[in-house]
């Protein structure tokens, strides 16, 4: 089934479910009114039914606000600069001549980056090997920069 056909079927199903939901709420309100009419006076039964429907509407709006609100994230620490680590990595990469290759072959660089992302995203073994190689390379770089 094509995506347009699925979209049309889902739209019709959603509209039908919404219409049935409105009808069900209406019948529930009438049933509540008829039940309350036997217990209290008719004007109070209508008032209680209206209050129940108003509370239901408020509950639905609060639920919708809760579902659509963005998650609260803790504030970032003020003393940390998130770009500092990225800048260090970029400085180390620029020393290796990779920047010149990317500028010379931008299309191939994008394709290689995409391929590497797919491989690393798919294979846990590849991720582990790359992490170990990066740690080893960074340790060698830091050992070379330290005066002995």
What do you see in this structure?
The chain has 148 residues and is an all-alpha fold. The protein folds into 2 domains: 3-68; 100-148. It contains 6 helices and no strands. It has helices at 3-39, 42-68, 82-95, 98-104, 106-122, 124-145. Helix 4 crosses helix 5.
Question: Would you summarize the structure shown here?
Answer:
With 148 residues, the protein is an all-alpha fold. Helices cover 84% and strands 0% of the residues.
Could you give a short account of the major beta sheet? Answer: none
Span of the ends, CA to CA = 69 Å
Instruction: Give the count of structural domains.
Output: 2
What shape does the CA trace take? elongated
Radius of gyration: 32 Å
β-sheet strand percentage? under 5%
Number of strands: 0
What is the helix fraction of residues, given as a range?
A: over 70%
- Low-pLDDT windows of residues: none
Number of helices: 6
Structural class: mainly alpha
Strand and helix order = HHHHHH
Arithmetic mean of pLDDT: 81
Give me some keywords for this one.
148 residues; 2 domains; mainly alpha; elongated
Spell out the blueprint of helices and strands:
Elements: H1 3-39, H2 42-68, H3 82-95, H4 98-104, H5 106-122, H6 124-145
